[in-house]
Amino acid sequence: MSNAIILIARILLSFMFILSGFMKLTDPAGTAGMIAGAGLPAATLLAYVAGLFELLAGLAVLTGFQVRIAGWLLAAFCVFTGIAFHLPYASGTELVNILNQIMVMKNITLAGAYILLATVGAGAYSIDARRGLQAVAAR
Q1: CA-to-CA distance for 46 and 27, rounded, in angstroms?
Q2: pTM of the entire structure?
Q3: pLDDT tens column, 92-134
Q4: What stretches pass through the bilayer (predicted)?
Q5: How far apart are CA 21 and CA 60, in angstroms?
Q6: Which of residues 86 and 12 earns the better pLDDT score?
Q7: Residues near 14 by Cβ (< 8 Å), separated by ≥ 6?
Q8: Looking at residues 11-40, what average pLDDT do you find?
């Protein structure tokens, strides 16, 4: 049962990054604008890099490939983007401030989920398990 739950969690945790990464790669303008607004250089290039990272990391989580590495990288990505792009959240209209506060909380919460996934691993229903890189979760 634990392995089935880990699989369900991996599916749920991969969805956002697969979709977000695909959207960044097909239309990077909005992300490039946020990156430029945060004062980072090469905004369009960084938007493509972020999109590729999100898509590949999301697919890694979904398929259970190198999940421990992907989990740590996604946790760091969530914390970084929460801080870099959503703090301080007292920088816009009231609605923008509320949305940014929610985004920071979402990113920190997701970082915790990815740290847990990195610690527990991909479970039995994964590429890692088929390659012998993953201990199967206890039942």
Answers
A1: 13
A2: 0.90
A3: 788 888 888 999 999 999 999 999 999 999 999 999 999 987 6
A4: 7-25, 45-62, 69-88, 108-127
A5: 13
A6: 12
A7: 58, 59, 61, 62
A8: 95
Kindly provide the b/e burial profile for residues 65-97, where b requires at least 16 CB atoms within 10 angstroms of the residue's own CB: bbbbebbbbbbebbbebbeebbeebeeeeeeee
Amino acid symbol at 78: C
Helices 2-26 and 94-120 pack at an angle, to 10 degrees, of 130
Cα distance between residue 21 and residue 3, in whole Å: 27
Name the residue type at position 131. Answer: R
Quote helix, strand, coil % in the chain, to nearest 5. 75, 0, 25
Give pLDDT, residue 138. Answer: 47
Q: What percent of the chain has pLDDT above 70?
A: 93
Instruction: Mention every residue, 6+ apart, whose C-beta is less than 8 A from residue 28.
Output: 44, 47, 48, 51
d(CA 21, CA 28) in angstroms, rounded, equals 10
Characterise 72 by phi-psi region: left (phi > 0), alpha (psi -120 to 50), beta (else): alpha
